[in-house]
Design brief:
Blueprint: H1 2-15, H2 18-24, E1 29-34, E2 37-42, H3 45-54, H4 56-65, E3 72-77, H5 136-147, E4 157-160, H6 167-181, E5 187-191, H7 192-204, H8 208-216, E6 220-224, H9 233-248, E7 252-257, H10 269-275, E8 280-282, H11 288-302, H12 308-317, H13 322-339, H14 343-348, H15 365-375, H16 380-383, H17 390-407, H18 411-418, H19 423-436, H20 441-455
Parallel strand pairs: 2-3, 4-7, 4-8, 5-6, 6-7
Antiparallel strand pairs: 1-2
Length: 456
């Protein structure tokens, strides 16, 4: 019976995405086959329900393909006190595997570019990067680069934004897609800390010229976390020379950072200028709809069924970044698994904290108004008055935008806080700032700074 079950699992593994199989099938067991009734066991109710809803058909087909009569497929929860059947790898034989003879280690051959690895992770793909209003412009540039790497329009491509917003995912996805389209391309991804460490090592081994030459052979260079170059003058000089060599050869250069080149202390003005000469593109904090889309995509990719109410709860309450959002998502699923509950039941029973800004202090509307006024060097009375002077009006609209996005206030309440009579004025102000943020990088930086000051 268990030999057949191994074949069934092998067939299921071929029929569904690998990530889904790894999530749902390693710890399920064949309990019984009797008179056409096949009983499959799962460790908890949550996983049992998911298997029954999503994979009953796949399991039944695999059983029938292996000549198992199936008149009824049942799922049950296996008590932790019951003895477990042997793991899949031990179903054929319980004898220990033979010990392989020791073999000498062989040095991994270098690629054509001189690097033993391109540094790319296959899990970062364009297909699983969710596009929203917070990143659509950067994704459009990425797709242009994929279609025509090295073209002057977007070379270099400088991408910036706060932590956890998807910079690494997007730039590695570019590299992976380029490599899939043309396996002969010489592509190398490295964080700046890795570039620095390898450069120092090459200098110590008197191989500085070899280090430089390896980079010159690349078709695409991707540098992540460029801000880490601060205080490393020799590495900065080396990178500047490599940048110039690759650029002159029309090779694609992609750089990420948590801030604009001009905002990175000690970076040479010439290098800062060249990095952003084709524009600097950033990733913003996702809006509510973007976060819902991210969570839904992640759930579908994992093969998880999660209620829309649970997704909306996370999207509403996690307001830091995508990494934190995904962390809360994983935590919710883990608790649901542990408690044998659905995700929504976990939330309803209070196992997940309803903290609107995890890791940040709670702020009031008045504090937001004061911080915005202070940033624009205005008094609260000036900002919340009737002045139509451009910079005062902009400050007032920024306050409206932050009160709406950060505190979730209604337009009527916002109108009261900023001193305007008509809530439609607030709606117009929020819409204007939202539209301006799509292309106004300076305004994005201003709001990011104000937000840091609010929660700092």
């Amino acid at each position: 019976m268990f030999d057949v079950w191994k074949k069934v699992l092998d067939e299921v593994e071929q029929a569904i995405p690998r990530e889904q199989f790894a999530t749902w099938f390693p710890d399920i067991e064949l309990v019984e086959i009797k008179d056409g009734v096949v009983v499959v066991g799962a460790p908890n109710i949550f996983k049992m329900n998911q298997l029954q809803k999503r994979y009953a058909g796949v399991l039944e087909d695999a059983l029938k393909h292996n000549e198992v009569e199936v008149t009824k497929l049942q799922f049950t929860v296996i008590s932790s006190s019951k003895p477990k059947v042997r793991p899949r790898e031990n179903l054929i034989s319980s004898a220990p595997p033979p010990v392989a003879p020791a073999t000498p280690k062989v040095k991994k051959p270098q690629s054509a570019s001189g690097f033993t690895s391109n540094g790319l992770s296959p899990r970062y793909q364009i297909d699983n990067f969710v596009i929203g209003s917070n990143n659509d412009l950067a994704v459009s540039v990425a797709k242009n680069i994929i279609d025509n790497p090295g073209a002057t329009t977007y070379n270099p491509f400088f991408l910036y934004g706060g932590p956890g917003l998807g910079k690494t995912h997007l730039v590695q996805a570019i590299g992976n897609t380029l490599l899939r389209n043309d396996p002969s391309l010489r592509i190398f991804y490295t964080p700046m800390s890795g570039f620095y460490a390898d450069f120092i090592k090459s200098i110590g081994n008197n191989k500085g010229s070899e280090f430089h030459q390896k980079f010159k052979t690349l078709d695409v260079l991707i540098i992540d976390d460029f801000q880490m170059i601060t205080g490393k003058d020799a590495s900065q000089t080396e990178f500047f020379d490599i940048f110039n060599d690759l650029y002159q050869l029309n090779k694609q250069i992609i750089v990420t950072s948590d801030r604009l080149p001009s905002q990175i202390k000690t970076v040479d003005e010439r290098l800062a200028s060249r990095l952003s000469m084709r524009g600097a593109f950033d990733l913003q904090l996702p809006q509510f709809e973007d976060k819902c889309a991210i969570l839904r995509s992640k759930a579908d990719f994992r093969g998880v069924e999660i209620e829309s109410e649970a997704i909306e709860y996370l999207a509403e309450n996690v307001k830091t970044n995508i990494r934190d959002l995904e962390g809360e998502f994983e935590k919710l699923l883990a608790i649901a698994d542990l408690k044998n509950m659905t995700p929504l039941q976990v939330i309803s029973d209070g196992y997940v904290s309803a903290n609107r800004n995890p890791g940040h202090k709670t702020v009031s509307a008045r504090q937001v108004v004061e911080k915005v006024a202070k940033y624009y060097q205005l008094s609260v009375n000036e900002m919340c008055g009737k002045s139509r002077v451009s910079h005062i009006k902009t400050a007032r609209q920024v306050a409206m935008y932050i009160l709406s996005k950060e505190l979730g206030m209604s337009t009527t309440k916002i109108a009261y806080e900023v001193g305007v009579k008509d809530h439609t004025t607030v709606m117009h102000g929020i819409k204007k700032i939202t539209n301006d943020l799509k292309l106004d990088f300076s305004l994005r930086d201003q709001i990011a700074t104000i937000r840091d000051q609010i929660y700092g």
